[in-house]
């Protein structure tokens, strides 16, 4: 196959911003019988590079970057006949983890070179695409983490999350949510609610993970933990792998829903690591099997 590999220069601490690293990537794919063209571009030139790649006769586009870059690329690739590959170079690399891709870029390249093409779901949040998860309610924490944790060891990143959540979430306003789906109306007060294309699994580990990325379902996780004590309990459950089955967590699964938050006309949200302003009422729906993506072959 012929691939265009587009790398966001701002990602990965510049690990691939040199000829030696790029030639190593080309060699890895060539050994598996693939032809790869590598581009390392500044964030301001990423959109142009993707436009050129989509207009080319390549079979697939491999994006090297963080979750935000991967999601924006996925949305464009989903509207084409090309396949997407994920080379993780971000802070949390959520989609790469869910796909089972190594977080070492050269090992990830080896996995992509022998990967299978599979179809996975996308989430559509008003006009925004979402590949991993959207969170509302505690977005200031996510914004702060992105600044303070980038470049830290992965375990230190993860341990800081629940501590900051407890400290900061109590200062965030409570959202009075109304969710309408399948003839059902659900009302909850929350400080944090997440939406994802696919169900998260409860298991020991510091970063939540989804197993089935092609369920055709939108999953909603509404935390009703409002007090400091309840938030400490939520943090403990997060660290011990009981986050999604903890008492006070409402879980919904559907194909689409309408979201409102009292009289608010808009709310901040974090979609795959990027902060956006969400207009209300908000329409959220799953787009089943919308994206062709490279998934490492199972041994």
Features:
299 residues, alpha+beta, Rossmann fold, Tumour Suppressor Smad4, 2 domains, six-stranded antiparallel sheet, 31% helix, YegS/DAGK_C, NAD/diacylglycerol_kinase_sf, ATP-NAD_kinase_N, transferase, kinase activity
Average pLDDT, rounded to a whole number, is 88
What is the succession of H and E elements? Answer: EHEHEHEHHEEEHHEEEEEEHEEEEE
- Summed up, the helix count is 8
Could you tell me the radius of gyration in angstroms? Answer: 19 Å
For the largest beta-sheet, the strand count, sense and barrel status come to: 6 strands, antiparallel
Q: Briefly note the structural class of the backbone.
A: alpha+beta
Assign a percent range to the helix content: 25-40%
């Amino acid at each position: 196959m012929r691939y265009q590999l587009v790398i966001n220069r701002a990602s990965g601490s510049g690990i691939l911003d040199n000829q030696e690293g790029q030639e190593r990537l080309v060699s890895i794919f060539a050994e598996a019988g693939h032809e790869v063209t590598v581009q390392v571009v500044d964030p301001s030139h990423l959109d142009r590079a993707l436009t050129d790649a989509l207009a080319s006769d390549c079979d697939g586009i491999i994006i090297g970057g963080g979750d935000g870059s991967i999601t924006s690329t996925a949305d464009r690739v989903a509207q084409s006949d090309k396949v997407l590959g994920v080379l993780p170079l971000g802070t949390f690399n959520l989609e790469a983890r869910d796909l089972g891709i190594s977080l070492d870029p050269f090992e990830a390249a080896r996995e992509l070179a022998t990967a299978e093409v599979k179809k996975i779901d996308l989430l559509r949040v008003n006009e925004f695409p979402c590949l991993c998860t959207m969170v509302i309610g505690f977005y200031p924490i996510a914004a702060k983490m992105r600044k303070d944790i980038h470049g830290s060891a992965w375990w230190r990143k993860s341990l800081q999350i629940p501590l900051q959540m407890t400290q900061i979430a109590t200062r965030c306003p409570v959202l009075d949510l109304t969710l309408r789906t399948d003839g059902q109306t659900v009302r909850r007060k929350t400080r944090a609610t997440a939406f994802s294309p696919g169900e998260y699994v409860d298991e020991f580990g510091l970063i939540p993970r989804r197993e089935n990325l092609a369920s055709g379902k939108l999953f909603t996780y509404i935390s009703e933990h409002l007090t400091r004590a309840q938030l400490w309990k939520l943090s403990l459950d997060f660290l011990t792998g009981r986050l999604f089955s903890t008492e006070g967590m409402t879980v919904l699964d559907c194909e689409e829903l309408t979201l409102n938050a009292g009289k608010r006309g808009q709310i901040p949200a974090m979609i795959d690591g990027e902060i956006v302003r969400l207009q209300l009422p908000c329409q959220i729906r799953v787009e089943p099997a919308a994206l062709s993506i490279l998934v490492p072959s199972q041994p």
